[in-house]
Design brief:
mainly alpha, about 210 residues, single chain, Cytochrome Bc1 Complex, Chain C
């Protein structure tokens, strides 16, 4: 039964993605595929760097130097990872500005706006947690300040800050949880929303819906 369901989903996806795209929707799809390509680049470079990164306050600086100095093409991997992240943020901001100007944040076209906002939140969190993983003096201070802001959120704030921090103080546990969030939790969420975005855009283009 599950095999039939999976086959039906795959066939539906193929049908949607193979359908001709009207000219008014091609720019939206191009933005979506650009984000997907940049995200894939981040995934590949991130996995390669994770092989050498040590999420330990004592070893993190040495591991980053090792990546830049000793790992073949390590400097390129880190540079691509860094700039792909910033390019994704820029692309999502441009798309949000376009949707805002077109008024796509209201009515039946609001789904694209909502997904773009979720993209932005995820990519900001990804960039932020990536900066924390440097674990130098600046990153340590940034972690403390950001967790204080989280803690100030009514009701959920104190508990959420304790989970992210791993205790009452910012320690090695905080670094470990930041690494897990950056390398495992956020990428899966981002991949889910990228697929959802492409699905929504492709279905809208196939049905000949209004501009978004």
């Amino acid at each position: 039964m599950s095999e039939r369901r999976d086959a039906g989903i795959l066939n539906a996806l193929r049908g949607v993605l193979r359908s001709p795209v009207p000219p008014e929707h091609r720019l939206d799809l191009a933005f979506g595929w650009l984000v997907a390509v940049l995200f894939g680049l981040q995934l590949v470079t991130g996995m390669l760097m994770a092989l050498h990164y040590q999420p330990s306050p004592v070893l993190v600086g040495e591991s980053l130097e090792h990546i830049m100095r000793d790992v073949k093409w390590g400097w390129l991997m880190r540079g691509l990872h860094h700039w792909a992240s910033h390019m994704m943020l820029a692309v999502v901001l441009i798309q949000l500005l376009k949707l805002f100007v077109l008024g796509a944040y209201r009515g039946t076209r609001a789904s694209g706006w909502t997904i773009a906002l979720l993209f932005l939140v995820l990519f900001v969190l990804s960039t932020f947690t990536g900066e924390i993983l440097r674990w130098d003096e600046r990153a340590y201070g940034l972690a403390i300040a950001s967790l204080r802001h989280v803690e100030s959120i009514p009701l959920l704030g104190p508990g959420l800050a304790a989970v992210l921090r791993g205790g009452d103080e910012v320690t090695a546990t905080t670094l470990g949880r930041t690494f897990v969030t950056h390398s495992m939790v956020l990428p899966w969420l981002a991949a889910l929303f990228i697929l959802l975005n492409q699905w929504v855009l492709a279905r809208r283009a196939r049905r000949g819906g209004g501009r978004s």
